[in-house]
Design brief:
The protein is of the alpha/beta class. 31% of the residues lie in helices and 21% in strands. It contains 14 helices and 14 strands.
């Protein structure tokens, strides 16, 4: 399902020069549906061509498309001017990779949505807004149904806000959802995450904190890991979301000296009926598919959950790029001495957990007719 460049949907990026913004730019280079035509960032970058704004700051091995180099970067905070440039570029929606305070991000995304611009956000500011869906495209695509209610309630015509969840929960939400779909919901989880330094952005964590070290604290991360799954597993109640009551999650989040790839060690207790064997669980994971796979979205992994039988996998360096860096790679499934089962799961935090997850959400929203 490819398109000529002239048929692609022009899109914009807020926070285009930051770590996640750069990932959006890079990942959208050859996307068959979308093409970057607008970029906005901080006042420091505003008024510069994109190539000059990221000179000396580009962090990825894959560079940006030639046409992006000459896009003039707008000041994301100067909303009226930025929207004029957005419209001149013929853009349809924006990806938000803003790196501002939560209150500033929340207000700014609402300004763009109120101006008729759909906002597909990577930021955390709106994850707990009652009428904003937190989407993992395979897990809760039906949560997009709240968008018409969100627009009506706020008096927005075409604009809306949809967000993706925290990067640290991506590695275990799909495996849990697969078990739920098979009739085995989880009661309790204990999760230990080992999170890559790229999750802190650039320049991120100082080198003297990370070399030969582990930092057992990431601000706000444990709260996000424990609460966001309940909204994702929840349901629409009227014009707001009602959170699920289960699973109860206890999270320990650690920063480790790995560039990309968040690893989670999970112990899980089932809420009732249990799978008959470890082989049954592996088959459930192997057979797992969602709407992105069924509809063959361009950025969807063909195999959303990949199980590795080796005793020492998954490993970030070897497994984070599996299936466009959009798959979850699992290993070490075994019985737990405290709960029922335990396993290790890995996902690429700046692709699946950030820009790639945002792009997949945009594909979902286009499929649903919202873009």
């Amino acid at each position: 399902m490819s398109q000529n460049s002239s048929d692609k949907i022009p899109v914009g990026i807020l926070g285009a020069t930051g770590m996640v913004g750069q990932q959006y730019i890079s990942l959208l280079n050859d996307h068959p549906w979308f093409e970057v035509r607008f970029a906005a960032a901080s006042p420091r970058s505003a008024g510069k061509k994109y190539k000059d704004a990221v000179a000396g700051r580009w962090q990825l091995t894959k560079t940006y498309a030639p046409h992006v180099a000459d896009i003039m970067v707008e000041d994301a905070n100067d909303v009226n001017r930025a929207i004029d440039a957005f419209k001149k570029g013929g853009c349809s929606f924006v990806f938000s990779a803003l790196e501002m305070s939560k209150d500033e991000t929340k207000a700014l995304e609402e300004q763009y949505a109120a101006a008729g611009i759909p906002v597909i956000s990577n930021a955390s500011a709106h994850r707990w807004t009652d009428d904003v869906p937190v989407l993992i495209a395979e897990v809760n695509p039906e949560h997009t149904d709240i968008i018409p209610l969100q627009k009506k309630e706020r008096g927005w015509d075409r604009g809306f806000i949809a967000v993706k969840p925290n990067c640290s929960i991506q590695s275990y939400m799909k495996p849990i959802h697969a078990l739920v779909k098979a009739g085995y919901p989880a009661q309790r989880l204990i999760v230990h995450t080992m999170q890559a330094v790229s999750g802190a952005g650039y320049p991120g964590v100082p080198s003297l904190d990370m070399i030969d070290n582990i930092v057992p604290y990431i601000g706000g991360e444990e709260e996000k890991s424990e609460k966001e799954p309940l909204k994702i597993f929840g349901s629409i109640n009227g014009n707001v979301f009602k959170n699920a009551e289960l699973p109860i999650i206890s999270a320990h989040c650690n920063r480790v000296p790995v560039i990309d790839g968040h690893t989670a060690c999970v112990s899980l207790e089932f809420a009732g009926k249990k799978p008959s064997s470890m082989e049954e669980i592996k088959k459930i994971w192997a057979d797992y598919k969602g709407l992105p796979q069924e509809a063959d979205f361009p950025f969807a992994p063909k195999q959303p959950i990949i199980y590795r039988e080796e005793d020492n996998r998954p490993q970030p360096r070897k497994d984070r790029d599996a299936d466009k860096a959009m798959a979850v790679v699992i290993g070490r499934l075994r019985q737990c001495n405290v709960f029922d089962i335990r396993f290790v799961a890995l996902s690429h935090n700046t692709v699946r957990g950030a820009a790639g997850g945002g792009i997949l959400n945009a594909e979902l929203l286009k499929h649903k007719g919202y873009l």
